[in-house]
Amino acid sequence: MLIPMTVACTKEGDGDNQSDVIGSDDTSSTETDDFAPEPYMDDFGGFTFTVLTRGSGSAMSNDITGEITGDKLSQATYKRNQSLKAKYNFNIEEIKKGDWVSAAKVAGAAGEDTYHMWSFKLRDYASLVLEGYLRDLNKIPGMNLDAPYYDQSLRKQGSFANMLFFITGDMLYMDDLSTMSLCFNKALWEEHKLSDVYGKTLYELVDSGEWTFEKYCTLVNKFGFDIDSDGDVDDNDMLGQAYASQDILEFNVGMGNSIISKDQNDLFVFNDSAKLMNCIDAIFELYRGKAGYYVEDYTSTAFHDNRALFLGATLKAFPGKTNKPPSGIIPHPKYDETQESYYAFVHPHFTNAITIANAVKDTDVEKIASIIELTSYESMTTVTPEITEYIFVKLPDNTDDQRMIELICKNKYYDLSYTWHIDYGFEALRSLITDGTLRTPSAVLNEGKNQIEATNKSYFNAMMRY
Ligand SMILES: [Ca+2]
Ligand SMILES: [Ca+2]
Questions:
Q1: If we measure between CA atoms, which residue out of 314, 282, 280 comes closest to residue 424?
Q2: Which of 107, 131, 244, 400 could form a disulfide with 112 if both were Cys (CB 3.0 to 4.6 A apart)?
Q3: pTM for this prediction
Q4: CA of 176 relative to ligand 1 center, distance in Å
């Protein structure tokens, strides 16, 4: 049976190689035939596979068990699990904990295999890996990591010294819903006749490959009006952009940059290219100008009250779904017109991952790996097609937006400094937003540059235990 892989947001890490910084992904298979996993056993005898998740609400956590009365993704998840149970006789159980990392560490330290898989936010894994709580997926028999149901982009970017402790893919959908888009207010666009600026709508600029950061800045800087006349431009005024801290990474990735990349030994390398430094400084110049205002968590009153032109949003939270305000969706801009593709940043705070706890008994490891494989494969035809439906559920009948979403999902990237807690990468930049100083962001990045060797050494030493 051939399964077409043409729906939006389902190609896990199918990136291209047009950038000198963001790496290529070479998954080109469009058929799943060759990847049908051979089950470890025909009958799992009613075995229960347990997944520990953060019980902090559906906004961040991937539904693992699903409900027949839930939304489309929850229903599809439920049906997937029922189908797997009927075929192989195993159960999937989700255990939610408000203090998920502590719960995992307590079980891990006691060597208890209460939770086989720990599915948290990406940023939770660095400390768990460095403290020795997770298994190296590259060493698990029966894991076929080349399969298209694993995210090849995270596979490359989430590994260290050729060890891989967390991955996402079709088994989970939060990575897809956490892909970042740029929303614009259609009413403001019309009212200010912004199609006249470049003789094109935003959709046309994107389609023709002309959607660049320079054009974005020009459009943003047409705003910044102190409408309540208190001398400051803030979320009560008229903004070109309402930005959140992770927008630094959205724009940086959009322009084909990565603060940290990896060398041939899969160790961290600090990228000090002039292009990266220029981009980071340009992003901050815009933030520090009068047309932008910092809003934490993408919750801008200005945007929702028709007073901001641009706002970054996850595909899950795209305001156009409710059409309040009337919003369109486009990718983040390129560096320049010679950049081949648009790139989308995947928000690591909302992305969950597949892992295997170190405390899983050696005799169970292959069984667990097989359950992950079978569930991932089954998800390709049950859950994944529903992701597109879910994103479009309330979307007005707008083929432009649908086409843009497909474009956004084509090249998804993470950020190593954020995922791996390398504090002199994104964290150093983030603190600049709110610390009130006007230090040059590229200089701040350069200050941390010499620490990369020490980080490589300490991460490597910590991982020697594996
Ligand atoms: Ca996924
Ligand atoms: Ca004001």
A1: 280
A2: 107
A3: 0.90
A4: 5
